[in-house]
């Protein structure tokens, strides 16, 4: 693979989490070829993930996987970001060009607020865009200023805790996992184990410290957590 072409050197630092993502990482990296700086934090992949990422110009760091929030926070604490704005992605996510243009406009604005931005996620499954089931209204805080964000410490369904006021971007990003269906089944079998651990911690062991609140009249992550704990569980 040749190194990807740079569209514009937008002053954004991107970091991507990977583990055996050779089916997804090239498309993910290609979708952020406009960013001036791209890191890949790899959890000891045994496939061609690191080889592909390095060939496409990403700075690759290896760190053993301890958990999703631990991995993200390790990246936030240890990577030397050159830019004020950080974009956090998984390897099976992609940034469409319309969103890249909107991010460029945001980082060019010198105002102190917002400290970060929620971005709507479009979920694709087996080549089809899922419009229903609540997935189309999923907003995640993925773009934020350096030093203004941490990821709450929970085994799954973790949110970014922002030091400051958030904003909302109008353009979505895409979740497109190109691995085999068997991988999807294995991943969600693992997720169910993590969901049980989270449920027991919340109901029998006093919950988690330093996380967002569960509030019906709160912001979207707080409302989603209230619905999950009071209705879904």
């Amino acid at each position: 693979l040749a190194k990807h072409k740079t569209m514009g050197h937008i002053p954004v630092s991107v970091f991507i989490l990977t583990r055996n993502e050779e089916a997804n990482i090239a498309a993910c990296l290609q979708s952020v070829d406009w960013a001036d700086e791209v890191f890949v934090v790899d959890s000891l992949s045994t496939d061609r993930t690191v080889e592909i990422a390095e060939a496409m110009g990403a700075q690759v760091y290896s760190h053993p996987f301890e958990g999703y929030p631990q991995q993200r926070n390790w990246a936030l604490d240890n990577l030397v970001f050159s830019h004020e704005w950080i974009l956090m992605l998984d390897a099976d996510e992609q940034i469409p060009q319309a969103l890249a243009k909107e991010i460029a406009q945001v980082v060019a604005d010198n105002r102190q607020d917002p400290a970060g931005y929620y971005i709507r996620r479009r979920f694709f499954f087996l080549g089809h865009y899922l419009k229903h089931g609540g997935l189309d209204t999923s907003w995640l805080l993925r773009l934020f200023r350096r030093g203004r964000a941490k990821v709450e410490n929970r085994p799954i369904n973790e949110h970014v805790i922002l030091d400051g006021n958030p904003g909302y971007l109008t353009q979505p990003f895409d979740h497109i996992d190109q691995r085999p269906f068997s991988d999807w089944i294995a991943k969600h079998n693992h997720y169910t184990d993590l969901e049980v651990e989270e449920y027991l911690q919340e109901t029998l062991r006093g919950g988690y410290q330093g996380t967002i609140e569960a509030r019906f009249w709160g912001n979207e992550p707080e409302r989603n957590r209230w619905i999950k704990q009071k209705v879904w569980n």
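The two ends are 46 Å apart (CA to CA). Residues 1-7 have pLDDT under 50 and may be disordered.
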